[in-house]
Automatic annotation (TrEMBL):
Keyword Nuclease: yes
InterPro entries associated with the record: Restrct_endonuc_typeI_TRD, Restrct_endonuc_typeI_TRD_sf, Type-I_RS_S_subunit
Alphabetized UniProt keyword annotations: DNA-binding, Endonuclease, Hydrolase, Nuclease, Restriction system
Family: Belongs to the type-I restriction system S methylase family.
Protein name: Restriction endonuclease subunit S
Entries under SUPFAM superfamilies matching the protein: DNA methylase specificity domain
GO molecular function: DNA binding; endonuclease activity
Any one GO biological process: DNA restriction-modification system
Length: 426
């Protein structure tokens, strides 16, 4: 038998069961903003144990947040903001609408508001309701330099209110369903990780050992590469590549390029207002076959892919180091090779300690490249183009499954907390 529904009068909620109510968040929970104890007092923080100090990157999980990069010590918790167990946390600055919770006492920084629910709301139902209200969070945020949703505006968000008994039923239903969905998502993520590892090892094997497993080998005298085919040469980078310093001074080139996730992509020069300079006269003009290296922020960022192969004429920021071949060679092979240098974190170990950035001069002094014959460079590049394309297609399929499952989970949560599916009979 279908349930009688009524219009809630709230656009993001839509219809709700006729016996449900609607209420402002401020009437359902105490909203409290987190804080950052003084960074100048080292005794406030620990990387090992203490009171979990939650930041936006800890949110958007369906598990209790209990392990964080930093914790507050006994002294730090006095200077910070402490929330009781089963608090729901909502990011209200920059990453608006990221939601999480903790089953234990915790703290958070000032980007996050803690929601301490009263007796009208089962806290776990409150968590799921806030997840469902993501678009409402975004709609109510103010934007100047960055998006901000203050606690007053957050408090005006309206939420559906079933009976406590039904809230508990909905929470139990969603706990079970979301856990099952997350298991499938995790399996797909594991597949993606294994495929990415396989791709990296395939590239490194091909560019350092070649395609013939029976060829005679010799010592490369490069620690991470070790042995290479006997016929290959070891040549300083500066012999093969020069730095491209050709600037777009006359503004004739407007094909804006950028390095993103190891690929050179086109950007719309007219749709990035506020993120780009007034003009592009200091940008570097690049051409097909150039190799771009992002060698900045080496101290902090150990995850980015830092190499990209240019396949079209365009302009790119001069903050990158752009390499132009000095002689006939296969740029695709050398891009794969430099990608392997990147994956092996070679750039991070150059010079005295860990550098914030590297110049072409520092790079050319320190990097030696291995070089097969031109014909073999082409064969290896062709092999890797084909192999990587197949692996990337498999990764894309798994990511598509993950995306669909995430969308299904969000729809399930929304329909459950607004009563569009009756969890009492599920």
């Amino acid at each position: 038998m279908s349930r009688e529904m009524k219009d809630s009068g709230i656009s993001w909620i839509g219809e709700i069961p006729s016996d449900w109510r609607i209420g402002h968040l401020k009437r359902l929970a105490r909203i409290k903003t987190g804080s950052t104890p003084s960074r100048s007092v080292e005794e406030y923080y620990s990387e090992k144990s203490g009171l979990p100090w939650i930041k936006p990157e800890n949110l958007n999980s369906y598990d209790s947040v209990e392990n964080t990069a930093e914790y507050l010590t006994a002294e730090g918790r006095v200077a910070g903001t402490v929330f009781p167990q089963n608090t729901v946390f909502a990011c209200c600055i920059a990453s608006i609408g990221k939601i999480g919770y903790s089953n234990i006492e915790a703290s958070c920084n000032q980007q996050i508001n803690g929601l301490i629910y009263n007796d009208l709301i089962n806290w776990k139902y409150g968590f799921y309701s806030n997840v469902a209200a993501n678009n409402e969070y975004l709609a109510r945020a103010n934007s100047s330099v960055q998006f901000i949703l203050n606690s007053t505006n957050q408090g005006y968000i309206q939420m559906p209110i079933p009976s406590i008994a039904e809230q508990e039923i909905i929470s139990t239903f969603l706990d079970s369903k979301c856990a099952a969905i997350d298991q499938v998502i995790q399996k797909q993520k594991d597949i993606v990780n294994k495929l990415m590892e396989y791709k990296q090892s395939t590239i490194t094997q091909a560019v350092t050992k070649g395609l013939n497993p029976n060829v005679k080998m010799k010592d490369s005298e490069i620690d991470w590469i070790r042995r290479i085919p006997e016929s290959w040469d070891i040549i300083p980078l500066k012999v093969l590549f020069k730095e491209n310093k050709k600037r777009n001074t006359d503004l004739t080139n407007s094909n804006l390029l950028s390095l993103s996730y190891g690929r050179i992509i086109q950007k719309n020069i007219d749709s990035n207002f506020g993120l780009l300079p007034d003009n592009f006269s200091k940008y570097t003009i690049v051409n097909d076959g150039d190799i771009v290296l992002r060698l900045t922020d080496l101290q902090n960022d150990h995850k980015s892919l830092r190499t990209g192969l240019v396949t079209q004429s365009g302009i790119i920021t001069s903050a990158y180091v752009t390499l132009t071949p000095k002689k006939k060679l296969c740029s695709r092979y050398f891009h794969y090779l430099l990608h392997s240098y990147d994956i092996q974190k070679v750039f991070y170990t150059m010079g005295e300690g860990i550098r914030q950035s590297l110049s072409y001069d520092e790079l050319s002094r320190n990097i030696r490249l291995i070089m097969p014959s031109f014909k073999e460079q082409q064969s290896i590049a062709n092999y890797l183009d084909s192999k990587c394309l197949a692996i990337d297609e498999s990764i894309k399929r798994s990511n598509k499954i993950i995306q669909k499952l995430e969308e299904y989970k969000k729809a399930l949560i929304y329909n459950a907390v607004t009563g569009k599916i009756d969890c009492r009979n599920a």
